[in-house]
Amino acid sequence: MIKFRTLSNEKDDDGHLLPEDERKTSLGTIMRKTSLDELPELFNVLKGDMSLVGPRPLTMYYLPLYDAHQARRHEVRPGITGWAQVNGRSKVSWEDKFDMDVWYVDHQSPWLDLKILCKTIIQVFQQTGTTAVDGGALRPRSGRNGG
User: What is residue 140's predicted lDDT score, i.e. its pLDDT?
Assistant: First the structure.
């Protein structure tokens, strides 16, 4: 997936990445707030690797952590925006995001996609929900109960 780099790779003394809010570059902060960091993903759409609407892709690292319900999000092409993004974006838990992704899989339609695209445009202009509630440290956990 093509993306702009908005975070540095700064690590603490133990070799762990610092929290996102400490690694954001000045330009990265502006790009994320305005969602301009998502523009390169349009090339992924043109290549056919992504759709405009669908569950947001995660790194391959998380694949073994999905339970069968969560893995259903892969039944559709990943998207630049999705149902979870317009219904809480970074302010909902990973479990809720996965549930919303599966809901989208079960209810996908051109009209739903149009609704999601319209809501996305509104959110971009309002600059809502662009930062995770914990400064970006939320990470998906395995299984339905986060175990």
Answer: 54
